[in-house]
Design goal:
Elements lengths: L3 E8 L9 E8 L4 E5 L6 H9 L6 E6 L2 E2 L10 E4 L11 H11 L4 H14 L15 H13 L5 E5 L7 H18 L3 E4 L3 H7 L2 E6 L2 E6 L1 H6 L4 H6 L6 E8 L2 E4 L2 E5 L1 H6 L6 E5 L4 E3 L5 H6 L1 E6 L2 E4 L3 E7 L4 H13 L8 E7 L9 E6 L5 E3 L15 E6 L1
Parallel strand pairs: 3-8, 3-9, 6-7, 7-8
Antiparallel strand pairs: 1-2, 1-4, 4-5, 9-10, 11-12, 11-14, 12-13, 13-22, 14-21, 15-20, 16-20, 17-18, 18-19
The structure holds adenosine-5'-triphosphate and magnesium ion.
Length: about 400
């Protein structure tokens, strides 16, 4: 087992305008499970391939344990990799497919037998060892590919979207499986995905990439609650964080739905910005009529007409469109395009308790929790309130 350290790792492909991976620093502890996420083309696979040694590093240093491995051949790095498009050998049995890496290293038969049985047991493939890949389901084939990685004593596992070919149900099963195996074995793992459920549930820490640049590395909860910028805020969470225009004059913060007083310190932090983007997650709203006086007082109560309601049984989503100026509309449109999200737009999506009786087309008294609100710079996307919620003192409806 080993730690993996990336120091200012850059990859430039010949002829490309921008680097595919741009000066990435990432320190992965021994035994840690780190997820790489980000939109298509952001450099996830390239990073993994540089760690594995399948792609040259243009600049920077890569360490496995204490050893700098930039110039070490892939087979000498002792890493096991599962690719997005794993290929099994069609003419070999499941047993021999799993045994393959051990055969390459000329392991004795008894050792092969013992290791293949153990990894087949872990992946519940024992009944299938005599079959050929063509006689397996997609999920079973995926498990064989994993078995082939797990069968070796690798220093680290590298997974590149190993579940992407599976349907939703199998993905869920395999996700639990991977989680269980990794915590059992405690082996350093770097796992690429663009599925944010995998990102949030599997990793100790999640690294978010955008166009080759690392945006934030943090445990899932921190990423969700304290995103450093608009990109991370919009990428993590479903439905996504709501973004609306905000202006500050003196210590008064004005939103499309109401007005509140903020602390002088907060006002200072956002000073000099004509318009801001306020971000607040759907679950930090509620039907004001369901709250006691104390909670109502700690949040902003406002009245809006509900456009659409989706009742899901355990909760409901209410949709409320709003107007936004060009300085806010444009960055949000760019973000929606970049994240390929139809849900980021000039409307609020709020989660309400299933008990709520608000109705489509009717005005409703709603409530939001300003301590969970973030304020972003529309130009740079930076979260100006990172590390703290908006500290609201007195609240007033519009
Ligand atoms: N061999 C190559 N030659 C030139 N450019 C490449 C090569 N491989 C990848 N790229 C480019 O590098 C960038 C990063 O690609 P990469 O495969 O790492 O993205 P990714 O994050 O894994 O995306 P996906 O989620 O679609 O798998 C992309 O712009 C891609 O076009
Ligand atoms: Mg990829």
């Amino acid at each position: 087992m080993a730690s993996i350290r990336l120091e200012r790792i850059t990859k430039r492909f010949p002829g490309a305008d921008a680097p595919a991976v741009d000066s990435v620093d990432l320190d992965i502890a021994d035994g840690e499970f780190v997820i790489l996420v980000g939109p298509s083309g952001c450099g996830k696979s390239t990073i993994l391939r540089m760690i594995a040694g399948l792609e040259d590093i243009t600049e920077g240093d890569l360490y496995i344990g204490d050893r700098r491995v930039n110039d070490l051949a892939p087979r000498d790095r002792n890493l096991a990799m599962v690719f997005q498009n794993y290929a099994l050998y069609p003419h070999l049995s499941v047993y021999e497919n799993i045994a393959f890496p051990l055969r390459l290293h000329k392991a004795p038969d008894e050792e092969v037998e013992e290791r293949v049985r153990r990894s087949a047991q872990m992946l519940e493939l024992e009944e299938l060892l005599d079959r050929k890949p063509s006689q397996l389901s997609g999920g079973q084939r995926q498990r064989v590919a994993m078995g082939r990685a797990l069968v070796r004593d690798a220093d680290a596992y590298l997974f590149d979207e190993p579940l992407s070919n599976l349907d939703a149900k199998l993905r869920g099963q395999m996700r639990t499986e991977i989680s269980r195996i990794q915590s059992q074995l405690g082996i350093t793992t770097v796992y690429v995905t663009h599925d944010q459920i995998e990102a949030m549930t599997l990793g100790d820490r999640v690294a978010v990439l955008r166009k080759g640049v690392l945006q934030q590395v943090a445990p899932p909860r921190e990423l969700y609650e304290q995103p450093v910028n608009l990109f991370v805020a919009g990428f993590i969470g479903s439905p996504p964080m709501n973004f609306m225009p905000a202006t500050v004059s003196g210590t008064t913060l004005e939103l499309p739905v109401g007005r509140m007083e903020i602390s002088p310190d907060m006002a200072n932090r956002v000073a000099g910005h004509e318009v801001l983007i306020a971000g607040i997650r759907p679950e930090h709203f509620e039907d004001a009529n369901l709250l006691d006086e104390d909670r109502r007082r700690r949040g902003l109560v406002f009245s809006e007409r509900i456009d659409v309601i989706e009742w899901l049984g355990s909760e409901q989503y209410a949709y409320i469109p709003f107007e936004a100026p060009e300085q806010v509309r444009r960055p949000l449109e760019e973000l929606a395009t970049e994240l390929d999200s139809e849900q980021i737009r000039t409307q609020l999506v709020v989660t309400l308790d299933a008990e709520s009786r608000v109705a489509e087309g009717e005005p409703a008294d709603l409530w939001l929790d300003p301590s969970r609100m973030h304020l972003f710079d529309p130009e740079s996307g930076e979260n100006l309130t990172h590390g703290s919620g908006v500290d609201a003192r007195t609240l007033a409806s519009a």
